[in-house]
Amino acid sequence: MSIVAGLAAVAVLGAGPEAPAEPRAQEVEPQDLTSLTLEQLADIEITSVSRRPQQLSQAAASIYVITREDIRRSGAASLPEVLRLAPNLQVQRVNAGDYAITARGFNSFETANKLLVLIDGRSIYTTLHSGVLWDAQGVVLEDIERIEVISGPGGALYGANAVNGVINITTRSARETMGPAIALGAGTEDRTASLRHGGRLGDAGAWRLFVSGFDRGDSELEGGGPADDATAGVRVGGRADWSNAAGDWTLQGDLYDHEVAGDVVLQGGFALGRWRRDLGGYGRLEAQAYYDHTDRVNGPVVEEVRTWDASLQQALDLGRHALVWGGGYRQVENSLTSPPGLAGLVPEERRITLGNLFVQDQVSLTDAVILTVGIKLEDSSFTGTEVLPNVRLAWNRGDGSLVWGAISRAARTASRIDRDLTLPGFLVGGDFQSEQLTAFELGYRAQPAPNLSLSVTAFHHDYTDLRTVSPDPAAFVPLRFANGGEGHTSGLEAWASYEVSPGWRLDLGATTLDKEFRLKPGEIDITSLASVGDDPSWQVLLNSRAQLTDSLELDVRLRAVDDLPLSGVDGYVEADVRLGWRLENGLELALTGSNLLDDSRLETGDLSRRRVFGRSAYLTLRAGF
C-alpha cells in the first residue's frame, strides 16, 4: 500500500546515523522492565489496583503485567494481538480489523461490553454499545512501557463499565525516547511502518513525534475466498514531558485516518494534558484533561463522537492509612444518522454528562494485614446514579506470599443502542437500566523459589438485570430491550513463571469458566440470552522465551482454547514462533510465524463475522528503540 511504502521510505531516509545521547531531565526514572529476574518483576510498581504506585507482589487483585520486553518478543503487529499474552483475557479475532476482547466471559463482537480500557488514563470505550472498537485504536507498540490487565471489577476506582476487568496501558515518557527510531514490518497479512524522533525540551523536559502506518490484508470467508475486509491507516502524534517549580507536566495527542475495505472510514484523534505535583506532607496531586473525537462513516451511516473529560485525584499517606480520593466530569456528544427505513438512534443526537466522586482507604490493620475499603458515586444524565463499593483484605504471610479476598459491586450502564435503537414498526427505544454485578474473589500470589512465581484466583460473579429483547405483551412487536436476565459465572485464573536457566523462561497460564444464566420469572427473551456471549470453558497459554546466544532469541507460544458451546465452533490449538537477532548497535531483525498448526481457524461464533485465519509470517526490522 502507498501509505506504508511512503512511511518506510521516510523512515529509511530520516533515520540517518544514531543521534548522540542527550542528557535526561531530572525526574523519577521510569522502570526498565527488560531482562529482569522474577524477583525483580514481582517488585515492579503498578498503579491500576489502587490508583497509586504499589509493588505487584502486594496487589490484592488478579492482575497480570505485560512488560515492554514481553511486547517486543511477542512478534505482534497490533495491540489486540499483544493482549493475547495475558492469560486472564479472552481474545477473539472476528475479521481483518475487529476483535472481541473480554475477561471472565461475555465474549463476542456484540456482547464484549464489560471491560474498561485506558490508554495513559484516557478511556477508549464507546457510548454507542459500551465496548471497544479495536479497529480505531492504535499506539506505537515500541513506546508502550507496560500493560496492566486486571480481571475482576474495578468500579470503585474506575466507575461503571469496569465490570469484568480493566486494561491499563501506559506509554513511555518522552525522556526515554530520545533520538531517531524506525520500525518496519512486512508479512503475508500485515505491513507496518513507524518513524519516531525525540529530543530535549529545555533543561528539564523532552519531546517526541511519530508517524505510523499499517496495511492488513483480507481475512477469509468460512466457505473460502477473501472476505473483502482489508484495512489500512496512518497515525501521527507526539508527546512532551517536562518539569518546573509548579510540578511535572505531560502533553500528548494524535490524529488518525483508517479505511476498511474502501467502505468504512474512521477518522479521529485526541489531545491530553496531565499535571502532577508532590505536596510534601499532603501527598501527591494529579489533574488530567483530554478531548477525544471519532468519526465513523459506514456507507450511508455516519457516527460522530466528541468527548471532554477532566479529573482530579490526591494520594495521601496518613500513618496506617493510605488514602486516595478524587473526582471527575465527562461530557459526551454522540450522533448517529442513517437513511429512513434503516435502524437508527432516536434521537439522532444526545449529550451525555457523567460526574463521579471516589475515595479508597488502605488501612494497615497490622504489619501483615491490609484492609482496603473504597466507594465510587457516579451520576449520569442518561442512566442516573450508581453506587459502586469495594472491600479487599490482604494478608502478607511473611514468606513473600500474599493471600487476599474481595467483595465488589460493579455496573454496566446503558449504551445508546440499549435505549435509543429504533427500527420503525419492529424495535422501539425503552427504559433499559444498568446491568449489575456482585463479585466474590479469593486469591493467592507467591514466589516459593527465586526462579518460580505463581498467582491463583478463584471467583464467583452474580449478575442481574442482564439485557434481553422482549416482545410487546399484546402484539409481539414492537420489541424493546429489557433487563430480564440473571445468573452467575465462576472459575479459576492461574499463571506461573519458571526460570529454567538465566536465559530461558517458561510462562504458563490457564483459566476456567462455568456459566449459568436464566430468565427472571415472567420474562421473555427472543434472543435466548444472546447477551451473555459465547465463551470457551477453558484456555491454556504456554510461552517459552529462550536466549540462544548473546544476540539470538527464540520464542515459542502455544495457545489451546476450548469449543464455543453456543455456536458449535470447534476449539483449537495454535503455535506462534519468533526468531530474533539483536545487534549491539540497537538493530533488531525478527521473523515471526503465527497460527502454524492449522491451515484455517475460526475464533468467533458471530454469524455475520465468521472469518477464518491461517498461517502467516511477519518480518520486522527495528532500529533505535
Would you kindly provide a written description of the structure presented here, covering whatever features stand out?
This protein has one domain (2-623): Maltoporin, Chain A (Beta Barrel), CATH 2.40.170. Helices cover 6% and strands 56% of the residues. The chain has six helices and 37 strands. The strands form six sheets. The protein has a 22-stranded antiparallel β-barrel. A five-stranded mixed sheet has the order 3-8-9-6-7. A hairpin with a 3-residue loop joins β27 (452-472) and β28. The model is unreliable at 1-34 (pLDDT under 50).
Topology:
Elements: H1 2-15, H2 38-42, E1 45-46, E2 54-55, E3 62-67, H3 68-74, H4 79-82, E4 90-93, E5 99-102, E6 115-119, E7 122-123, E8 144-151, H5 155-158, E9 165-171, E10 179-187, E11 190-200, E12 205-216, E13 220-221, E14 231-244, E15 247-260, E16 264-278, E17 284-298, E18 301-318, E19 321-337, E20 344-345, E21 349-364, E22 369-380, E23 384-396, E24 402-412, H6 416-420, E25 421-422, E26 435-449, E27 452-472, E28 476-501, E29 504-512, E30 514-519, E31 538-547, E32 552-561, E33 572-582, E34 587-594, E35 601-602, E36 611-613, E37 616-623
Parallel strand pairs: 6-9
Antiparallel strand pairs: 1-2, 3-8, 4-5, 6-7, 8-9, 10-11, 10-37, 11-12, 12-14, 13-36, 14-15, 15-16, 16-17, 17-18, 18-19, 19-21, 20-25, 21-22, 22-23, 23-24, 24-26, 26-27, 27-28, 28-29, 28-30, 29-31, 31-32, 32-33, 33-34, 34-37, 35-36
